[in-house]
Known about the structure:
The chain has a two-stranded antiparallel ribbon with strand order 1-2. The radius of gyration is 11 Å and the shape is globular. The chain has one domain. Strand 1 and strand 2 form a beta hairpin. The model has no long low-confidence stretch (mean pLDDT 77). It has two helices and two strands, in the order H-E-E-H. The chain is α+β, with helices and mostly antiparallel strands.
Amino acid sequence: xxxxxxxxxxxxxxxxxxxxxxxxxxxxxxxxxxxxxxxxxxxx
Length: 44
């Protein structure tokens, strides 16, 4: 696998729906629609 991520099914689903992505600098970006708890988890 080249340039791929192996994701747990629930994370894969939100990634596919565009709620979570990875910025060019490697930061995980979580959509505001998921709420503050989800955004805080992305910062860990």
